[in-house]
């Protein structure tokens, strides 16, 4: 599918066709694409918990303020962020040339050590980029999606048995839309959000 079509077709779906399943092979293809996403220093903070069992989705719906799409979707993908991902720098750069390894491994350790705010920001940034790749990759394969933050993070973390250093970033529900989406919601004009050269500058014509 053309990228412009993928962007145009992606909508936040809140009602999915019941009984649709998403198999392991499709998940494998999707996540092979998702892990090509960029991340700071290539640290790859993302972690994904994919829930497909009906009873577990029903339970997660309760922890998501009753939002029906969590139960109706084919897969509820909890995109998470690993606050300690930087600790693997040596492994990530193991195959890099010596100069690069010698430069980046200490740099990464220095940048993140004892920096809990930065660790969290980076985990959220990387997770958010991965979530976007997931939604576009899904659309490309004919799957609809919906990003969500409307869930109780503490209760969901406990339910999914997330370790303390792994935080939920976003839930992405995947499935087949039960009906075509309505018109897209209002978008701020480019003149309001794009600034050439400095804030307040003109926007591209
Ligand atoms: C971080 C984030 C959290 C969201 N949380 C929810 C949610 O909990 N429930 C929901 O129905 N939609 C949620 N949305 C979807 C937005 O409402 C939707 O993206 C927005 O209205 C634009 O519509 P579109 O995605 O169809 O273009 C969320 C979107 C984002 C990016």
Distance between the termini: 28 Å
Strand portion, in percent? 5-15%
CATH topology category name? NADH Oxidase
The counted number of beta strands is 4
The SS-based structural class is: alpha+beta
CATH architectural type: 3-Layer(aba) Sandwich
Describe the overall structure.
The protein is 42% helix and 14% strand. It is an alpha+beta fold and 205 residues long. The chain has a single domain, classed as NADH Oxidase. Helix 2 (24-34) crosses helix 7. It is globular, with a radius of gyration of 19 Å. Flavin mononucleotide is lined by residues 11-12, 14, 67, 146-150, 170, 184-185. Flavin mononucleotide (FMN) is lined by residues 11-12, 14, 67, 146-150, 170, 184-185.
Could you list some keywords that capture this structure?
NADH Oxidase, single chain, four-stranded antiparallel beta sheet, alpha+beta, globular, about 200 residues, binds flavin mononucleotide, 9 helices
In short:
This protein is 42% helix and 14% strand. The protein has 205 residues and is α+β, with helices and mostly antiparallel strands.
Explain the layout of strands and helices:
Blueprint: H1 3-9, H2 24-34, E1 46-51, H3 54-62, H4 69-72, E2 75-82, H5 89-92, H6 98-112, H7 116-140, E3 144-148, H8 153-159, E4 166-175, H9 190-193
Antiparallel strand pairs: 1-2, 2-4, 3-4
Helix pairs in contact: 2-7
The structure holds flavin mononucleotide.
């Amino acid at each position: 599918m053309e990228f412009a079509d993928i962007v145009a077709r992606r909508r936040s779906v809140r009602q999915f066709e019941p009984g649709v399943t998403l198999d392991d092979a499709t998940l494998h293809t999707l996540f092979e694409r998702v892990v090509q996403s960029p991340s700071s220093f290539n640290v790859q903070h993302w972690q994904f918990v994919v829930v497909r069992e009906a009873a577990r989705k029903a339970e997660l719906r309760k922890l998501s303020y009753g939002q029906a799409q969590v139960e109706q979707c084919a897969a509820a993908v909890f995109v998470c962020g690993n606050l300690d991902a930087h600790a693997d720098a040596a492994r990530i750069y193991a195959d890099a040339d010596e100069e690069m390894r010698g430069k980046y491994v200490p740099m990464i350790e220095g940048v993140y050590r004892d920096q809990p705010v930065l660790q969290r920001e980076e985990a959220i940034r990387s997770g958010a980029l991965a979530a976007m790749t997931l939604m576009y990759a899904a659309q490309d394969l004919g799957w609809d999606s919906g990003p969500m933050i409307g869930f109780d993070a503490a209760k969901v973390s406990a339910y999914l048995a997330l370790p303390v250093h792994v935080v939920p970033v976003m839930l992405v529900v995947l499935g087949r839309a039960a009906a075509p989406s309505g018109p897209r919601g209002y978008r701020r004009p480019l003149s309001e959000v794009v600034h050439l050269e400095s804030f307040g500058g003109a926007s591209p014509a």
